Amino acid sequence: MEQPLPTAAAEAAAGGGDGDGEAYRIRPLELADISRGFLGLLNQLSPSPPLTEEAFRARFEELAALGADHLVLVAEDAATGRLAAAGAVLVERKFIRRCGRVGHVEDVVVDAAARGRGLGERVVRRLVEHARGRGCYKVILNCTPELTGFYAKCGFVEKNVQMGLYF
Ligand SMILES: CC(=O)SCCNC(=O)CCNC(=O)[C@H](O)C(C)(C)COP(=O)(O)OP(=O)(O)OC[C@H]1O[C@@H](n2cnc3c(N)ncnc32)[C@H](O)[C@@H]1OP(=O)(O)O
Q1: CA-to-CA distance for 24 and 80, rounded, in angstroms?
Q2: What start and end residues bound the annotated signal peptide (predicted)?
Q3: Domains plus CATH for the chain?
Q4: Which residue's CA is the nearest one to ligand 1's atom 15?
Q5: Does the pTM exceed 0.95?
Q6: Using one digit for the tens of pLDDT, what is the confidence trace for 94-146?
């Protein structure tokens, strides 16, 4: 039986479930989303080799075990049932800042055909609200310079620089 990630209740409590007659319903990722275009959506973010259903399920269950500290949101097109956007936030638990928490926004993507209608901003704002509801004192993300305007619209300000080391 299909179960949404257990973060669903916490996310709903933080303002989720806005399916009230809107064209897109933003909700937590479900196992069945593999057949609603989730992987194709992620492919628009970063082209990857195809993922088997088994691998998808294993990763889904791994993330579910993290509870509300890891939330993947998707936007479902109410008319077609296909996914039009996705994004994730994970909550880092620190020792500093009196054992403070930091939200990390990752893997935000809107289907090419649905861009420019405010969907990306809606997803990001919902991820931020989730992090705030989990007690985070800040939310951070990495992006290319071309996207700073988009994230500024979502309330972010530029701070420091990103560094990476790839294997
Ligand atoms: C942390 C990360 O995940 S970074 C990776 C981000 N994802 C990608 O790059 C994947 C490919 N791109 C996309 O999926 C989309 O273009 C997104 C997610 C960047 C934007 O999604 P959209 O739904 O098109 O954005 P949305 O319509 O919500 O835009 C909100 C506002 O930001 C503005 N905006 C959107 N994209 C940009 C941009 N690249 N530069 C500047 N402003 C932008 C819009 O004009 C809009 O402003 P307005 O309110 O004044 O009209």
Answers
A1: 10
A2: none
A3: 7-153 (3.40.630.30)
A4: 110
A5: no
A6: 999 999 999 999 999 999 999 999 999 999 999 999 999 999 999 999 999 99
